[in-house]
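Posting here for the record, re: acetamide.
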Amino acid sequence: MKHTIQIPNYRFLIPGLIFLFLSNAAFAQNDPYMGIIPAPVSVTKAKGEFKLTPETIILVDTPDNKAVKFFNNYLKKAGYVNTVIDMGQVDRKKYSLKNTITLSLNFKGEMPLEGYHLQISENQVILEGRGAGMFYGIQTLIQLLHGSNAGYGSIPCAVIKDHPRFPYRGMHLDVARHFFDVDFVKKYLDLMAMYKLNNFHWHLTDDQGWRIEIKKYPKLTEVGAMRAQTKIGRAAGPDSMLYDGTPYGGFYTQEQIADVIHYAEDRYINIVPEIEMPGHSLAAIAAYPELSCDPEKGYKVGENWGVSQDVLCPTDETFKMLDGILLEVMELFPGKYIHIGGDECPKIAWKKSDFCRRLISEQSLNDENGLQSYFVGRIEKYVNSQGRSIIGWDEILEGGLAPNATVMSWRGEGGGIAAAQLGHDVIMTPGSGGLYLDHAQSKSPQEPLSIGGNAPLSKTYAYEPVPAVLNTEQQKHVIGVQANVWTEYIATPEKAEYMALPRMMAVSEVGWTPPANKDYTNFSQQRLPNHLGKLDAAGFDFRVPIAYGAEDTTISGGNFKVELVSPVAGAKIYYTLDGYAPRETDLEYKSPLTLTIPEHQTMHLKTITITPSGKRSIVSDIKMEN
Ligand code: ACM
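Prediction output follows.
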């Protein structure tokens, strides 16, 4: 992917576009965060700018460092021709420090974990950081270079000191409901890296598909990776039984997974693989019916969405197979965490099973919730024995929490709060907090099919991961935040991008930026438009926000002044006053509108924003009545 953007040539633009582009540029000048997402901890702006020219030399003290290599590759791909020089191999005196960018890992002094210092003066740029810190400093540098609009590149002078608020900053992707190939997963990782997100939660198995090759149990993919057909539209209600009649599937070979892990490591992203159990396991049961409590029943890989009643039976045979699967998973994935699911496990099959009744009695458990706890505890013991830790969805609290488990709080924050109070680590990912990116991005019927809900960008941005009810000690157990992209209603890479963007940028700021530096107006109106402009040019899909100032509302009065801010750099805003949906053949917004409504009359100002690549916002509607 090429990260360059086309800077519009002002001379050939019509006046309206100048207004819009300059308005974004003007905002950027006033922006205390220099356009950077996520907003850094501290930015001290200074006069002047560093001019990157073809003669600028990149001095490095650790040329083999992967962050440094990432920067070299970036420069090459983006068409920069600068020479990179290993400081250790040359006589420093030969190089005046003028017109240099220095990347230093071997500096003296302390640095917060994952932190960096970036000093930009007219003569030189110095970036200091270790490990991920160097990588994140480079991401900031790249964003600043992108933001420049003077020829080869220029960066305004400043001192930036930065480090993340939380160690865990995650994005999830469900590849079971719909399969996303390696190229897309890498694109997703590219986005995560740009926005300093460091944990990719890969939801690899579910009722509707098993997506990871397990050599010991080949039927998991031979049978479990393919469903006969897929539900069309929403999960079936009484009025809808439409299926597409088309076999659907896909899985990753272990070789492909290793390649993705390597790609992620190069971007300082850890991958958390999720193998769902004991619920959401129908694809595995279809492959190996002996995993269920009723092996004779007959199973097929899920074709509709929802929660399957058929779940794994807690027999020794099941645990033996799960241990074998997890061993291969742990041999592949080097990270600390293995996610074992644990959510939405109906107990009907266990209640019907003589075996489960006996097990509950033998183990002196209270009920089937106790059995779920027994299940997770047994798996945890095995994962711990291999030197790893489990993460589970908050249902793993029910019936008693496994001793070392980290809890992902998705059904609100209650599970996370309870787990933190018990001294367990917690990752906050509540759907109610705007972190379910499969939820619609507005209430408008113009939004594409989604699971429902309403999680606008502003809601995701406003999420605060540390509940006030926790005391200081308990708060330390909130290790971070994650947004989830469930894909029942997301069948294509384009739609995955549409649902993830721009909300992923808000998640990035929730996970990274100190709360005191968060400011939604600054984020959405001063910084985001240029980022979306770049993504537009780079071929990403995203939801085009409604022009700021044009959001649906009803206002009363006779005279109105309407001032709009473009949500995407370079985009055009068209409007109508006649009640019809605007398109590119309508009036273009160029400067604030002054509108007069006669008494007892109503007028609608409808807008649409269209980006340079042709992406369109939904149509907004301001009803003005007098
Ligand atoms: C979940 O959304 N079932 C974790």
